[in-house]
């Protein structure tokens, strides 16, 4: 188990990585799934042998409230159907923490429940916010879970210029689920999970 990293350089590197992803040209992405709530694209990841996914959709609410529902905190467990538990293990500053969370089994339990330990950081970005994270090798792996690994991931949330009560939410996700899994099952699950994330989030914001 690694010791906890110094949060400031890790947060800075993570933010820079996400901003770089955000600048990748449209031509490098391939559409993986499209729903009324979101479009999901993918491209080969630079970090591991799977894909970097990009998801984007418009959400009817102000930026701060949207991000409060996504980042570690009391809201997330209430509405995210994939997340089954979440504990804040360490808090560095108000916007920076280490969290451990578990996810439900997927695809009729072909993908068994997973556990992740992530460093999470929320910061300003243009007129909105960026909340981002990366997994750490920290804490004991609990029985009955496979420990997954999130390579740099994050959500950019900015107000729509012509409609400030709406936000454009763009996510970048690259999750290594680990364990013995067919890659096709992982790819199917990721696209569907990201599309469902938007529809679940929209329902939660209307409550």
TrEMBL record:
Cross-referenced InterPro entries: StarD4, START-like_dom_sf, START_lipid-bd_dom
Name of the protein described by the UniProt record: STAR4 protein
GO molecular function: cholesterol binding; cholesterol transfer activity
GO terms for cellular component: cytosol; endoplasmic reticulum
Species of the source: Ptilorrhoa leucosticta
UniProt cross-references to PROSITE patterns, sorted A to Z: START
One of the protein's GO biological processes: cholesterol import
A Pfam family the protein falls into: START
């Amino acid at each position: 188990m690694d010791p906890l990293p110094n949060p400031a350089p890790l947060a800075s590197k993570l933010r820079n990585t996400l901003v770089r992803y955000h600048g990748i040209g449209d031509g490098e992405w391939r559409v993986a799934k499209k729903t009324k709530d979101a479009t999901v694209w993918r491209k080969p990841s630079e970090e591991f042998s799977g894909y970097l996914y990009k998801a984007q959709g418009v959400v009817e609410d102000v930026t701060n409230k949207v991000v409060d529902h996504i980042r570690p905190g009391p809201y997330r467990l209430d509405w995210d159907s994939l997340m089954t538990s979440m504990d804040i293990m360490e808090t560095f500053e108000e916007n920076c923490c280490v969290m451990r969370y578990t996810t439900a089994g997927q695809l009729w339990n072909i993908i068994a429940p997973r556990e992740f330990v992530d460093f999470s950081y929320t910061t300003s970005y243009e007129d909105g916010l960026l909340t981002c994270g990366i997994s750490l090798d920290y804490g004991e792996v609990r029985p009955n879970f496979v420990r997954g690994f999130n390579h740099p991931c994050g959500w950019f949330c900015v107000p729509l210029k012509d409609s400030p009560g709406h936000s454009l939410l763009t996510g970048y996700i690259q999750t290594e689920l680990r364990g013995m899994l067919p890659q096709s099952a992982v790819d199917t699950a990721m696209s569907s999970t990201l599309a469902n994330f938007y529809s679940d989030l929209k329902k939660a914001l209307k409550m």
